[in-house]
Design a protein that fits this description.
mainly alpha, Arc Repressor Mutant, subunit A
Length: 183
C-alpha cells in the first residue's frame, strides 16, 4: 500500500489554480485545508458524520463561489473558514429551526446582514480585539470563546462551567458595551 503524496501549493498558486478551475486546485485545497476546516466545523456541528458532510459542502461551495473571493479583503484561509463556519451554522440552525427561532442569536442576524451587504469584516483591522481587551474578564472570556474560537453558547457554558443563561446574558452585555465604542 503506497501513501498518496499530499499536494501543497503556495497561496498564490492555489488562488490561480482555483480561478482557472484546475483539477489540482481542489486536490490541493483538500490536502492542505481539510483538517483545519473540519476542526472549525466540528466545534459547531458536534456530530462527526454531519461535520464531514458539511466539510464536503464547504469544498463544493468554495469551488462554485470562488469568484466572490477577493485577496484585497483578506487571506484565502480566512475566507474559507468563514464559508465553513457559515455552512456549519446553517446546518445547526436548520436542524431544530423552531427552537432556534425562539432565541434568535445576534450572530446569525449579523451574518445575514453581512451577506446581504456583501460585507467582510476582519476583526484585527477593525481593532475589535483591542476593544475586547477593555471588557470585564467574564465578558471577555465568553466573547473569545464564541466569536473568536467558534464555540456555541452551550459549549462556552460547559467550558466555563456556568449556566447557559449566564453565558447569554454576559455575551449580550459584552456586545452592548462594544456597541458603545462604535457609536
Amino acid at each position: 500500500m503506497s501513501k498518496k503524496n499530499k499536494i501543497s501549493l503556495s497561496e498564490e498558486q492555489l488562488i490561480s489554480a482555483l480561478r482557472n478551475r484546475e483539477k489540482i486546485a481542489i486536490e490541493a485545497l483538500y490536502d492542505m485545508y481539510s483538517g483545519s476546516l473540519l476542526g472549525v466545523i466540528s466545534r459547531i456541528v458536534i456530530d462527526e458524520a454531519i461535520a464531514e458532510d458539511v466539510l464536503q459542502e464547504t469544498f463544493i461551495k468554495i469551488w462554485n463561489s470562488f469568484q466572490s473571493y477577493s485577496a484585497e479583503k483578506g487571506r484565502l484561509f480566512t475566507w474559507m473558514v468563514n464559508v465553513a463556519r457559515n455552512l456549519s451554522i446553517d446546518k445547526v440552525r436548520s436542524k431544530d429551526f423552531k427552537n432556534q427561532n425562539k432565541n434568535q442569536e445576534l450572530e446569525i442576524n449579523v451574518t445575514f446582514i453581512d451577506e446581504q451587504r456583501n460585507t467582510v469584516y476582519n476583526p484585527e483591522l477593525l481593532g475589535v480585539r483591542d476593544l475586547v481587551e477593555k471588557l470585564k474578564p467574564e465578558q471577555k472570556s465568553i466573547l473569545e470563546l464564541v466569536y473568536f474560537k467558534g464555540y456555541t453558547h452551550v459549549e462556552a457554558a460547559e467550558e466555563l462551567a456556568i449556566p447557559l443563561g449566564t453565558v447569554k446574558t454576559r455575551l449580550r452585555m459584552a456586545i452592548m458595551q462594544l456597541r458603545t465604542y462604535f457609536n
